Amino acid sequence: MCRAGPTVLRVAPEVSGGWITFMTYKPSTGDDLTQLVTGLNKLARNLWWTWDQEAQEIFQELSPRCWQNLYHNAVAILHEVSEYELRVRLQNADFAARVREVLGAFEAYMQEPETWAHQHAAALRDKPVAYFSAEFGFHETLPIAAGGLGMLAGDHAKSASDLGLGFVGISLFYREGYFQQAIDSNNWQTEYYTLLNPRNLPMEPVLDEEGQPIICNVEIGMNQVSFQAWRVNVGRVPVYLLDTNRPENEQHVRDLTLRVYGGDSTTRIMQEILLGIGGVRLMRALKVVPSVYHMNEGHAAFLTLELIREKLDAGMTYEQALKQTRAECLFTTHTPVEAGHDRFSPDLMDYVMHRFRTRISTPFAELMKLGRVNPEDMQEPFCMTVLALKLSRAANGVSELHGRVSRHMWHSLYPGKPVEQVPIGHITNGVHLMGWTKGTVRRFWSRKLTGQSLHSVPKPEQLPPAEWDRSFNTPEFWQRLGDPEFVSDEELWALRYHLRRELIEFARRRLLIQRQRLAQGDFIAFDQLLNPDALTIGFARRFATYKRAPLIFQQFENIVKLTRDRERPVQFIFAGKAHPRDDDGKRYIQHIIHLSKYSDLQGHLVFLENYDMHVARQMVSGCDIWLNNPRRPLEASGTSGMKCGVHGCMNLSILDGWWREGFDGTNGFGIGEDSHPDSVEEQDRVDSTNLYRVLTEEVVPLFYERDRQGIPRRWLQRVRRAMMTLVPSYTTDRMVREYTERYYLMK
Q1: H or E stretch including 323?
Q2: Are 139 and 157 in contact (CB under 8 A)?
Q3: E strand residue ranges, 378-486
Q4: Domains 116-430+737-744 and 489-729 share a fold
Q5: What letter would DSSP give residue 182?
Q6: Mean pLDDT of the region 712-740
Q7: How far apart are CA 676 and CA 647, in angstroms?
Q8: Which helix (H) or strand (E) holds 169?
Q9: How many whole angstroms separate alpha carbon 367 and alpha carbon 382?
Q10: Using CA atoms, how far apart are residues 361 and 293, in angstroms rounded to an integer?
Q11: Which residue, among 657, 739, 730, 744, has the nearest Cα to 404 in the 3D structure?
């Protein structure tokens, strides 16, 4: 299945236009410049720099324009800057000292012996968690995620690294990634794709000891499909991306890994066979023996069939193979919507499994039963979620309410149990705090904790910089926000103004580029857009219809009055993408852009196109209010609102997903009650009314209530409460610890 000698992971030898060698990096004691150059090349190909502010600043300083134009890509920066220039720049003693400090911090991180997992999960060191996800959202440099599922997976990997957990990620390398969004002259979303060049990305080919790619095979339909793998270094954690773009494959097979969720259901099921079955085979080629296979959503569930096949080949009975496979697997569902669960027709299953079924000794009809709620209904589509639930030792939703919804949704799989005993628990999602904290805020908190830059030597009475990021994730640190001696209202309000100004200037630059691209004259001057003194409300996410992006504008005339109030103005910044085949979502985008250009909201409402992780960081930091109004209970968790608190932005949200658990009445704003009408029309009407009421009766008055010094004391008191109660509770550090203690280590 895989052609490889003894497994040695390294990059190809350096040639003109080839790979930058770093895995064999051995610093020369006689040449400090060589050590620094080699160290920067090594660092560029480890995504640790994406959550270390000073590392980012070093790459940015090398070429500010390329940093801005090339998606903040450290590898691309080092291709832009010649080695000669880099050596000359390093003659600057201050710059060289900063590089040395960052490289030292990186090496200390990579070699740290006493991690959380060393103390609490040592058993996973040699037998790691194998985490399968169809998408990973690491950074805008590597756009291979479509939405929240991928963002969660990327943050999961980062926290697994921070905690020192034995962890291996498996996904696909989509060489055109997820689409880039452009808005045409009719305000309609259009999609275009750009080819991702691995040479310019923080990834490396997986090679054998002869320097040749390790090639594995998987049976899909009538084809024997070859694939190779790329390794993405996420701190201490490797994530492997499978790639069918091999010369021995036919073109349609090579294009299986072209785009995220690309093509029709046939392409989708083929991608999922590659991910699940191919991922297991790659693990075998790498001689990785996982302790548990964690399926992040049902896309990877075919891995269970490969595990069964292996066990049957080893001489187990079918029942024994099922039992042992079930003991090795864990499943996380993210979808409270029936249509969101992949289902494939019996005919399609018969076609795509044509060659695989000849390799497995049990009748294919028995395997088909594993994906059906009613095993005896031969016409029932094969459901990936059903397969995952039937063959996992544990399953969970991603918030308390989502766990409850999932137990009701899949109750028919457990007819002998009452709904409350359906074996689907929950672990509420989180975010990787360091990765989502904007540089301005990181510097602010670093100075508070250490009195200086992130990696410099502290004074005796100050916290060592190596410890400040650990402290940053703890409830004890955030409890200090209750002490005005630690950070005053004046300092906090100044920070909020700084962040709002940064967002507005960012938005103006983006909108100017959008206007220039369209060569339109119907848009107001970009430098007059938005008001740095106004209450700024942000909405940015996938434009799925259940998220109801235009809900706030159902009260259109009243919202216009709010935006035009000279004493208490309100403004809105929207961003997001609709799935390429979701015309209803595209119409939502079109409607909002039309309002921003041709209605009385002009100048007070803007839409930023081509939403990505960079735009997200600007918005969650600069907005005062993060608006979220999904149709309850269809938001499984949501994570964008978790990224706000560290920046002093507060949530205004329906009590769905994570916010239903996080909101306590004092740490943000809730829309409506902990319930919802059965009728969609009634729910939309009630939620629209409640949203406007909370906005006008609670949010706006509190924001503009100022004392003689012009400080909104009560608003900032609520900001402090949000920081104290939400920031340390909704991190992936907490989430990964929960997965480890409750599921990864379970017997």
Answers
A1: helix 318-328
A2: no
A3: 382-383, 394-397, 425-426
A4: yes
A5: E
A6: 97
A7: 31
A8: strand 167-172
A9: 10
A10: 23
A11: 657
pLDDT reported for residue 413: 96
Q: How far apart are the first and last CA of the chain?
A: 31
* pLDDT tens-place string over residues 242-271: 999 999 999 999 999 999 987 889 999 999
**Residue with more model confidence, 27 or 593:** 593
Beta bridge partners of 46: 233
Tell me if 235 sits within 8 A of 202, measured CB to CB.
Answer: no
Which amino acid, residue 64?
Answer: P
Tell which CATH classification among 3.40.50.2000, 3.10.310.40, 3.20.20.80, 3.30.300.30 matches the domain 489-729. 3.40.50.2000
For residue 604, the model assigns a pLDDT of 95
Q: pTM for this one?
A: 0.93
Q: What is the pLDDT of residues 529-547, one digit of tens each?
A: 899 999 999 999 999 999 9
- State whether residue 693 is helix, strand or coil: helix
| Cα separation, 260 vs 495, whole angstroms | 38
Residue 58 in tokens: 């070093």
Which tens digits make up the pLDDT trace of 141-196? 999 999 999 999 999 999 999 999 999 999 999 999 999 999 999 999 999 999 99
CA dist 632 and 156 (Å) reads 25
pLDDT in tens, 572-623: 999 999 999 999 999 999 999 999 999 999 999 999 999 999 999 999 999 9
For residues 314 and 325, the answer to whether their CB atoms sit within 8 Å is no
Q: What is the DSSP string of 626-652?
A: EEE---TT--S---GGGGTGGGT-EEE
Structure token digits, residue 270: 């083929």
Domain ranges of the chain: 31-111, 116-430+737-744, 433-473, 489-729
Cβ 397 vs Cβ 636: under 8 Å: yes
Q: Which helix (H) or strand (E) holds 534?
A: none
Show the 3-state SS of 411-452: HHHCCCCCHHHCCCEECCCCECHHHHCCHHHHHHHHHHHHCC
Q: What is the pLDDT of residue 557?
A: 95
Question: Which DSSP symbol is given to 459?
Answer: P
The per-residue DSSP string of 54-88 comes to HHHHHHHHH-HHHHHHTTT-HHHHHHHS-HHHHHH
CATH 2.40.10.10, domain 116-430+737-744, yes or no = no
